[in-house]
Amino acid sequence: xxxxxxxxxxxxxxASAPVAKTPHFALHRLVLDPAxxxxxxxxxxxxWLGVLIPKRWARRAVTRNAIRxxxxxxxxxxxxxxAAAHVVRLRGAxxxxxxxxxxxxxxKRAVRAELLALWSRVPAPAAPLAPRGHVA
Length: 136
Prior knowledge:
Radius of gyration: 17 Å
Number of strands: 5
């Protein structure tokens, strides 16, 4: 699995609507057409994964890093993730009154459970549409 690294890669994936949501996370997917071959944004075939955790929703770096690690750890590996570009985006803060510590075991368990729920809600990618044209 390749990781998204550049801003244009993230922008291309985030331009699509989320394919799955939980209270704190959203998953965006950009289906890559293998018939087109490698392109400038995604040169290698196979699944791509990126993580977007804004400071707005996780103020402390230790919290952002713990969430990021959980995302990469729970992502399906091998054939579990289709050949597409995916971005997991944090879309809401975890309640600081409930999770007092920035990296508590309770927070890790809550994040992991929600991410597993997110990955279980992901539908299979639709096949790219065949080009339309006049058939003789």
